[in-house]
Amino acid sequence: MASLKAQLSPIFRRKELKATAGVFLAGLLSGVTRKTGWQMAEQTGLHRPDPMQSLLGRSLWAEEALRDAIRGYVFESLGDPDCGYRRSRPPIPI
Asked: Whole-model pTM?
């Protein structure tokens, strides 16, 4: 989780946004069944979901850069030969 947060850190300019993004990521990856703002806030120790809602709705950050960083992290993680991920059949053409 720390390496992913480090990769995503440059996308968020302000330190408050970086911290909120890290908390949001922890909430997404947590064991909470329903990922509502309140439940994720409670799971991550926040008293209210306002910081997460602000991150998603009002803050400025590079969406494409975030997408590319997440995609790279996932490919890096799943591409590891020891991770157990094996495609059993060819991809379906779209």
From this structure: 0.66
Dist CA 87 CA 89 (whole Å): 6
Residues 6+ positions from 83 with CB-CB distance below 8 Å: 77
Residue 59's contacts (CB-CB under 8 Å, 6 or more residues apart) are 12, 17
State residue 93's pLDDT score.
Answer: 65
**R_g over Cα of the chain:** 16
Distance CA 42, CA 80 (A): 34
User: For 32-89, what is each residue's pLDDT tens digit?
Assistant: 788 888 888 888 888 888 888 888 888 888 888 888 888 888 877 776 555 555 555 5
What does DSSP assign to residue 31?
S
What six digits make up the tokens of 78? 């799943």
How far, in Å, CA of 60 to CA of 13, rounded?
9
